[in-house]
Amino acid sequence: MSRLDDGFAGKRCLLTGAASGIGRATALRLATHGAELYLMDCDADGLAATVADARALGGVVAAHRALDIADYDAVAAFAADIHTRHQAMDVVMNIAGVSAWGTVDQLTHQHWKSMIDVNLMGPIHVIETFLPPMVAAGRGGQLVNVSSAAGLVALPWHAAYSASKYGLRGLSEVLRFDLARHRIGVSVVVPGAVKTPLVHSAQIVGVDREDPRVQWWIRRFGGHAVAPESAAKKILRGVAGNRFLIYTSPDIRALYLFKRTMWWPYSKVMERVNVVFTRMLRPNPRRG
Question: Which fold, 12-281?
Answer without folding.
Answer: Rossmann fold (3.40.50)
